[in-house]
């Protein structure tokens, strides 16, 4: 039989002990001699005198009217394994195991008693026996120190008690401080200039520990940084971050000489400056060589590279030539003869490209090569030809959901115009189809066809000399279901 109960700690006054002892069975073992038990009526007529507190051997002989002590085999033996399960700053929980011998009359419960250090009186916690093997004493005061004992009780009386070896001391429970840094803050926290910083760092500790912050080993600037500390976390807040806010922020949590520390690295960055200068080194053929110097301000972080762009003087449109290019020199090829070009370079970091670019002051002129006219030494031949298909379309069977291609080849001069049709209907502009024509090879790609796409497909080639067409049958078979 096991159970749990919660009791409030009793006061240890002698008057209260005397009053409660009349209701709680004696916890000392009974004598050896056993007298016949009296009836209930005889017990009612007997005077209720408190039992003497003196030890059994030194006590005088009991008067004839007093009920004799029950025989030892009728009372249970002492409970076993009395131990303290838990101690806090205001409560204690004790537990025990049932006795080996319950007595002939059976077990009625247990009586828990305590005696404060320096006192001689044992005060019962529960005035009546309770069938539990664990009890919690609450509302204890800090500094209390007392012994605990428990006795098993039957209808014949209380058996011998078992006493804790050491007194129970109610004192403040200190939980060592501990900081739990969130995963995303275990690496450098990066934000841009002007953004807000709001970092919440949870910690543990009982009672409430004292938390403090430092920035690179110095106290925080209260004009820029605000801190709010609660019972379980501390929040660092910066309304508008500046580059000067970068650095190592250290949180220290202290409690009763114990402390825990955590470092948070913050990096505030912005867009880099443009390269300091750029110049045109050389121009040869259809190529130009450039050189520039790195920017003086990298935006408080490393550069990801440079973006190089070119612009034709006639159009003025800029086109990107190189992206995230790390060296500070480059050669640009495939420039068009007869054009003049300007070049510019941007810096790039995690925030993006620099707000401005370094632009070359001079233009790169790509000169035309001299052309020497040659007299005709042969009779020019006319290669004009009407369209004719050298490879027709082939009938095709496809599976729904898999892209399909229809191919054929055509020969014509001048270059013909290619028109694709499905069931004699022009399908140009339909996003489901993509038509390609390269070196006389005409391809129609049908993206993820369905049975609806089955039909007769026609490829028609037209130029000024005539036209030609080829057909094929496409069948898209629906997948079988079981």
In short:
The chain has 482 residues and is mainly β. It has helices spanning 14-20, 40-45; strands at residues 4-8, 80-87, 92-97, 107-116, 123-124, 134-138, 145-154, 157-158, 162-163, 168-169, 175-179, 189-192, 197-206, 210-215, 218-219, 225-229, 233-238, 247-255, 258-269, 278-284, 287-292, 305-312, 318-325, 329-332, 340-349, 352-353, 358-359, 364-365, 385-391, 396-398, 404-413, 417-422, 425-426, 433-438, 441-446, 455-463, 466-476.
How would you describe what is shown here?
The protein has helices spanning 14-20, 40-45; strands at 4-8, 80-87, 92-97, 107-116, 123-124, 134-138, 145-154, 157-158, 162-163, 168-169, 175-179, 189-192, 197-206, 210-215, 218-219, 225-229, 233-238, 247-255, 258-269, 278-284, 287-292, 305-312, 318-325, 329-332, 340-349, 352-353, 358-359, 364-365, 385-391, 396-398, 404-413, 417-422, 425-426, 433-438, 441-446, 455-463, 466-476. The strands form eight sheets. Strands 4, 5, 7, 8, 9 and 10 form a six-stranded antiparallel beta sheet that branches. Strands 22, 23, 25, 26, 27 and 28 form a six-stranded antiparallel beta sheet that branches. Mean pLDDT is 82; it is low at 11-68. The two termini are 64 Å apart. The protein is built from two helices and 37 strands.
What topology emerges from the helices and strands here?
Layout: E1 4-8, H1 14-20, H2 40-45, E2 80-87, E3 92-97, E4 107-116, E5 123-124, E6 134-138, E7 145-154, E8 157-158, E9 162-163, E10 168-169, E11 175-179, E12 189-192, E13 197-206, E14 210-215, E15 218-219, E16 225-229, E17 233-238, E18 247-255, E19 258-269, E20 278-284, E21 287-292, E22 305-312, E23 318-325, E24 329-332, E25 340-349, E26 352-353, E27 358-359, E28 364-365, E29 385-391, E30 396-398, E31 404-413, E32 417-422, E33 425-426, E34 433-438, E35 441-446, E36 455-463, E37 466-476
Parallel strand pairs: 1-6, 12-19, 30-37
Antiparallel strand pairs: 2-3, 3-6, 4-5, 4-7, 7-8, 7-9, 7-10, 11-13, 13-17, 14-15, 14-18, 16-17, 18-19, 20-21, 21-24, 22-23, 22-25, 25-26, 25-27, 25-28, 29-31, 31-35, 32-33, 32-36, 34-35, 36-37
């Amino acid at each position: 039989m096991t159970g749990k109960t919660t009791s409030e700690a009793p006061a240890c006054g002698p008057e209260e002990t005397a009053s409660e002892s009349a209701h709680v069975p004696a916890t000392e073992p009974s004598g050896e001699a056993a007298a016949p038990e009296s009836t209930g009526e005889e017990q009612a007529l007997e005077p209720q005198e408190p039992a003497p507190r003196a030890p059994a051997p030194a006590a005088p002989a009991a008067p004839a009217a007093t009920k004799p002590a029950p025989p030892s085999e009728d009372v249970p033996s002492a409970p076993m394994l009395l131990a303290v399960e838990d101690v806090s700053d205001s409560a204690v929980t004790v537990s025990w195991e049932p006795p080996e011998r319950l007595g002939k009359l059976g077990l009625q419960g247990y009586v828990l008693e305590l005696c404060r250090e320096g006192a001689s009186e044992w005060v019962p916690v529960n005035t009546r026996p309770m069938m539990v093997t664990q009890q919690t004493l609450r509302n204890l005061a800090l500094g209390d120190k007392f012994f605990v004992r428990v006795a098993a009780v039957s209808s014949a009386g209380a058996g011998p008690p078992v006493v804790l070896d050491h007194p129970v001391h109610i004192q403040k429970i200190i939980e060592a401080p501990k900081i739990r840094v969130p995963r995303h803050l275990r690496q450098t926290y990066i934000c841009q200039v002007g953004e807000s910083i709001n970092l919440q760092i949870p910690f543990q500790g009982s009672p409430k520990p004292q938390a403090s912050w430092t920035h690179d080993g110095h106290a925080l600037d209260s004009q820029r940084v605000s801190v709010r500390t609660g019972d379980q976390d501390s929040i660092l807040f910066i309304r508008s971050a500046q580059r000067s806010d970068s650095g190592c922020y250290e949180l220290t949590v202290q409690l009763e000489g114990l402390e825990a520390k955590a470092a948070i690295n913050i990096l505030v960055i912005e867009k880099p400056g443009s390269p300091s200068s750029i110049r045109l080194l050389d121009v040869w053929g259809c190529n130009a060589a450039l050189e520039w110097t790195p920017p003086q301000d990298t935006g408080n972080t490393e550069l990801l590279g440079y973006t190089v762009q070119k612009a034709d003087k006639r159009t003025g449109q800029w086109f990107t030539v190189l992206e995230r290019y790390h060296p500070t020199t480059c050669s640009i090829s495939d420039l068009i003869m007869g054009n003049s070009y300007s070049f510019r370079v941007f810096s790039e970091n995690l925030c993006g490209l620099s707000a401005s670019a370094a632009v070359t002051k001079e233009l790169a002129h790509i000169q035309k090569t001299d052309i020497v006219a040659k007299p005709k030494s042969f009779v020019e031949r006319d290669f004009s030809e009407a369209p004719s298909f050298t490879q027709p379309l082939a009938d095709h069977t496809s599976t729904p959901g898999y892209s399909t291609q229809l191919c054929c080849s055509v020969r014509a001069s001048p270059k013909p115009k290619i028109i694709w049709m499905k069931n004699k209907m022009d399908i140009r502009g339909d996003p489901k189809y993509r038509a390609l024509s390269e070196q006389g090879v005409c391809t129609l790609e049908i993206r993820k066809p369905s049975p609806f796409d089955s039909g007769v497909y026609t490829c028609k080639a037209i130029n000024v000399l005539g036209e030609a067409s080829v057909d094929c049958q496409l069948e898209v078979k629906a997948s079988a279901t079981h």
